[in-house]
Write a structure and sequence with these properties.
The complex is a heterodimer of chains A (about 200) and B (about 210). Chain A is α+β, with helices and mostly antiparallel strands. Chain A is built from five helices and six strands; from the N terminus they run αββαββββααα. In chain A, strands 1, 2, 3, 4, 5 and 6 form a six-stranded antiparallel β-sheet that branches. The chains are: A alpha+beta (about 200), B alpha+beta (about 210).
């Protein structure tokens, strides 16, 4: 093998190893949460005793201004679910972090906020991470945005690993036949499953 | 067999299996990686679907439970896919969906007259990719009282998801083993793994502890 090609192979092997090890825990999060989701096993939440905290908000506040004002007073941050729409003088929002949810009920008349802390445990945490940022809404918390950026990076690195892994396999002449059989079997399984799924 | 020979044989087969599993699952990995990326960026691929509706007359044999009736109608109407049967709220009617990633049929039948309205939704390719990613047959958001896979293809697809996950877990464990076998690179191996573990630990445990 020419020196240039050897150097390329050495670098590819090194990057395959280090990038692979870096994304290993991320892959475990996605793989383990998928096993649970695929068998409809959900996190079992447990709630702490609710607490009530006095707040001070103007009667004319509503929507996200109300939500941000109350969360600022309570010192809470996380992915916010809820628009702060007031009905009968009350509104409810959820402040979600991986493994923990704070359910905040704002009572404008009483000027107080009821807070229920819900723990969803490790399964809840990895499921939350698996679903975020996700299809249905833009993340509104900087940390969820950061996770989204990391999730994208994991995809790009995983794609790199598949290409670099295929290249490294191809360099091993003694493994070519067995590798071709494995690839062929995988392609055949994939096609046989995909054809009825997408009605081809 | 001596311990050293066993370790060598284990290392050899660990590497081979790592490689063969990676090659076997390559198309599955591409599908789930790319569909995950697409789902994380809905603005890149706006949701687009086409809808159409048709009417047909059907017969439902007496005495069938809702699920069995839905299966019977799926066959009668020549629809292929997973049946989604929510709690029935309209008396005298049977309403269910037949889903697969490239089609969504809603069937609304008047049990007395047998008049069936079938609504067909055809999503575009980006939506199909997303649906392949999530097509387990037992999704919480479908809100079915009984979450069961009733289409053989859904069962096989979810089985392939399980197989991919188990395969990936093996690939991860085997790569850590192979990394630690490389004594001259151990420092970088530990560093890259530690970076990944630290980043994930912050998200999985750190944020709830800090909040």
């Amino acid at each position: 093998m020419p020196v240039k090609s050897q150097r390329f192979a050495v670098w590819t092997r090194a990057l395959h190893l280090y990038f692979g090890l870096f994304i290993s825990p991320f892959i475990l999060i996605y793989a383990i949460s998928t096993l649970f989701l695929n068998h409809s096993i959900r996190a079992r939440p447990s709630d702490k005793e609710p607490t009530v905290v006095p707040i001070s908000v103007g009667a004319d506040l509503d929507g996200m201004d109300l939500v941000n004002s109350v969360l600022g007073q309570l010192g809470l941050s996380g992915e916010i679910l809820g628009q702060g729409v007031v009905r009968n003088g009350k509104t409810m929002i959820r402040v979600v972090r991986p493994g923990a949810i704070k359910i905040v009920t704002i009572d404008l008349e009483k000027q107080e906020a009821g807070i229920v802390e819900r723990s969803t445990g490790l399964l809840g945490a990895i499921t939350f991470l698996h679903f975020n940022p996700g299809l249905h809404k833009e993340p509104n918390w900087a940390i969820t945005k950061l996770w989204g950026w990391l999730a994208d990076s994991v995809v790009y690195l995983a794609l790199f690993l598949t290409v670099s892994g295929t290249y490294l396999w191809f360099l091993l002449r003694t493994e070519r036949r067995a590798g071709l059989i494995a690839t062929g079997a995988g392609v055949l399984t994939f096609i046989l499953l995909l054809v009825p799924l997408i009605g081809l | 067999m001596k311990k050293r020979e066993f370790v060598q044989l284990f290392a050899k087969w660990n590497r081979k299996i790592h490689m063969y599993l990676g090659l076997y699952f390559i198309l599955f990995l591409w599908l789930f990686s790319i569909s995950g990326l697409v789902m994380n960026h809905p603005k890149w691929f706006p949701y687009k679907v086409e809808r159409s509706a048709s009417e047909k007359n059907v017969t439902i044999p007496d005495g069938l439970e809702d699920m069995d009736a839905a299966r019977h109608l799926r066959e009668q109407l020549d629809l292929k896919g997973e049946i989604i049967l929510r709690k029935q709220n309209q008396q005298g009617r049977l309403i269910f969906m037949v889903l697969r990633p490239d089609k969504r049929f809603t069937v609304n039948v008047d049990r007395e007259t047998g008049a069936a309205k079938i609504t067909e939704v055809t999503p575009d390719n980006a939506v199909i990719l997303g649906d392949l990613h999530t097509f387990t047959g037992v999704r919480g958001l479908w809100n079915e009282p009984a979450q069961k896979r009733d289409w053989i293809i859904t069962r096989l697809w979810s089985l392939s998801m399980d197989a991919l996950c188990v395969g990936l877990i093996y690939i991860v464990i085997s790569s850590v083993y192979m990394g630690f076998q490389l004594k001259e690179k151990r420092r970088w191996v530990v560093l890259s793994l530690a970076l990944g573990v630290a980043a994930c630990s912050y998200f999985v445990w750190g944020l709830s502890l800090l909040g």
